[in-house]
Amino acid sequence: MSNSRILVIGACGQVGTELVENLADKFGRDRVIASDIRDEANFDVPYLRLDVLDRNGVRQAVIDHEITEVYHLAAMLSATAEQKPDLGWQLNMDSLFNVLDLAKEGILKKIFWPSSIAVFGPTTPRQSTPQRTIIEPTTVYGISKQAGERWCEYYHDRWGVDVRSIRYPGLIGWKSLPGGGTTDYAVDIYHQALASGNYECFLNADTSLPMMYMSDAVKATMDIMQAPADQIKIRSSYNISAMSFNPDEVANSIRDHISDFGITYKPDFRQEIAGNWPASIDDQEARQDWGWSHSYDLDAMTTDMLENLAKLLKATD
Ligand code: SER
């Protein structure tokens, strides 16, 4: 591993922004390379413009920079992929093959690729959704993640590819803005609470979804990649969970800090997506197999989000 490096693909996204920092702290700035499709980005580690659909470009970058581990985070999320189904499918699937095939050839040693609660659908049990259950997704994003999970397991079982995956719930963080997800209301609501004291929500008040604070999500991502290979018993993707809440509950949590915070509801097409996803997730296998545990619940997250976003607002005043 002496000269080997870690490549984060999709580094400018919501997870990538924080993951790059954490990887650099743990492994050193010279060991991590951030990449995304943008021409430029602001990282403390080297940055590479990379189109993950450019199969040869990805291959060359991996060889040139002596990459052995890839965190492949580039994806089109649920709401955007419903608007652009063919592009969503192409981006989410072709990019995965571009990375998996480099591991099949033995060039890459380890891959992280996230799946999502979006693999579940209306026929899945909604409460404490088990690891193994009915999986009949109804969104392009969900179908692409379900197919991706099957391919990850196939590459592992057939060619010994060391690919590891978790099904992210809705992710909430203050360091970057999300884009195109159905769970993103739970990020925007904090921004609006501070900016205007009001939020118009695109989901109904009682739509509960599994959620996680970003620091927990980054920890899960790093932990599963550090675990000894024989502890990773599921090679499709692990359920992980931290908390579940609905928009009414997050609004109440905000009112502990901003007492006159107001919320109104104007559900749009994203309500149907959310209504077909689990309300809560059973993640006992991740806890047993590689020691997953979370730190943040809703109120702890609200306190941290508001504190950090307020500082950011002040700094940009
Ligand atoms: N947060 C994602 C979305 O809403 C789900 O994985 O699309």
List cofactors, ions and other ligands. Answer: serine
General form: globular
- Enumerate the strands of the largest sheet in spatial order, edge to edge or round the barrel: 3-2-1-4-5-7
Considering DSSP H and I runs of 4 or more, what fraction of the residues is helical?
40-55%
Number of domains: 2
Secondary structural class: alpha/beta
- Please tally the β strands and state the result: 14
In what range is the share of β-strand residues? 15-25%
At the fold tier of CATH, the topology name of the largest domain is Rossmann fold
- Give the termini separation: 45 Å
* String of helices and strands: EHEEHEHHEEHEEEHEEHEEHEHHH
Identify the CATH architecture of the largest domain: 3-Layer(aba) Sandwich
Can you tell me the residue ranges where pLDDT is under 50 for at least 5 consecutive residues?
Answer: none
Q: Could you write a compact summary of the structure shown?
A:
With 317 residues, the protein is an alpha/beta fold. It has helices spanning 14-27, 55-64, 78-83, 85-104, 140-159, 185-195, 214-226, 247-255, 269-275, 284-290, 298-316, and strands at 5-9, 32-36, 47-49, 67-72, 110-112, 115-116, 163-164, 166-168, 170-172, 198-201, 209-213, 238-239, 243-245, 262-265. 43% of the residues lie in helices and 16% in strands.
